[in-house]
Amino acid sequence: MFLRQGVSLSVVVLAGALMSACASSPTKTGLSEFGRYQCGQLEVTVTSSGDDELVGLEYLNRRVLLKPAESASGALFVAPGDPDTRFWSKGERATLSLRGETLPECLEPGAIESSFRGIGTEPFWSVVIENGQMRLTRPYDQQVTEDIRLNEILANRHGRAYEATLGDERMEVRIAHQLCEDQMAGAQYPAQVRLTLGDETFEGCGGDRQRLFRGAEWVVEDLAGAGIIDRSRMTLRFLADNRVAGRASCNRYMGSYNLTGEGLSFSPQATTMMACAPALMNQERRFLELLEQVTDGRIGRHGELLLQTPAGDTIKAFQSEVESP
User: Fold this and answer.
1) Backbone CA torsion sign across 96, 101, 104, 110
2) Confidence category of residue 93, pLDDT binned at 50, 70, 90
3) Which of 21, 234, 288, 325 could bridge across to 220 with cysteines, CB 3.0–4.6 Å?
4) How many CB atoms are located within 10 Å of the residue 13 CB?
5) Among 91, 107, 123, where does a domain finish?
6) Is residue 324 part of a domain?
7) 98 exposure class (CB count in 10 Å sphere: 0-12, 13-18, 19+)
């Protein structure tokens, strides 16, 4: 397991404090429907617009005004004239759809997914946390204990910590939002997890792996070490339902991807049928060929996306800071 390189020392120290320090009472940011959320790789901010009827939704280089709407629970806001753009807040979590595309679950700083899974290897163990309760698969004997009621003992912008009692045994689970790598399979996860049972402590990873890839437009900056043609553009968007789409240089493409604990792969991509200059068409063909050969996807030390093939070729991409038209 490792901490992502390139983060500031203060963040690493604070995250380490979350994993190791004891706390006697929860401390939370108190953000309600107004505040900052992380929707996978997309950071959004919900603010007051100065108009009692509207709120502002800010992300990348855009600001969208939303109007409160009726909902059975939580706080729902919808863009006037665009019902497919909506933000639905429920406490420290929310759902965001932009023009009909639903992003990964939006979380206030430090919050965990509504269904959070953590795992460890050597020995194998797992925890699933939902609605303040947990299912535990114990190390060594794989005994499963259901419906463990948790007491939250720490909540800050770096993560959460919980404790419970199993008979005479005290249990504690600490979750820190730091990039984590499974020691056996090498898969990356968005959170580090520490499970303590009695006097033993076990390290692991957790969270939805798709949160590392979805919510961003990834812009290719290097194709198998050859760079890219000046002013050309290749992009990837990881979408809901295991769909992927983007620009391949000349044409747009779409298809599917498969993300597992063993790696990342792509289906053959369907493209539009435009013709461009031969150099662009050659670059596009090379990009799509490499994409089909990818067997692993990782987040690098500077936050870049690294798509790797068994032959050692890599597609390197960074997140766009603006929304493409």
Assistant:
1) negative
2) very high
3) 234
4) 9
5) 107
6) no
7) buried
List Cβ neighbours of 231 (8 Å cut-off, separation of 6 or more).
none
Cβ proximity of 66 and 77 under 8 Å: yes
Distance between CA atoms of 311 and 325, rounded to whole angstroms? 35
Pairing between β-strand 191-197 and β-strand 200-206 as defined by DSSP bridges: antiparallel
Q: pLDDT by residue (tens digit) across 25-77?
A: 333 323 345 699 999 999 999 998 777 788 999 999 999 999 999 988 889 99
Report which secondary-structure segment, H or E, holds 77. strand 75-79
What is the number of domains present in the chain?
3
Structure tokens at 137: 């698969």
Q: How far apart, in Å, are the Cα atoms of 241 and each of 35, 203, 214?
A: 28, 31, 11
Contact 27, 17 (CB under 8 A): no
Among candidates 302, 264, 128, which has minimal Cα distance to 185?
A: 264
Query: What is the SS3 assignment for 214?
Result: coil
* Plot region of 191 (φ>0 → left; ψ -120 to 50 → alpha; else → beta): beta
Q: CA 274 to CA 296: how far, in whole Å?
A: 30
- Taking only the tens place, the pLDDT of each residue in 132-160 is 999 999 999 999 999 999 999 999 999 99
Q: Which of 32, 80, 26, 19 is nearest to 54 (CA)?
A: 80
Instruction: Transcribe 245-258 into DSSP letters.
Output: EEE-SSSEEEEEEE
The domain boundary residue, chosen from 192, 208, 224: 208
Q: Where do we find the tokens 């996860």? A: 189
CB 195 within 8 A of CB 118: yes
Instruction: List the structure tokens of 308.
Output: 């790797």
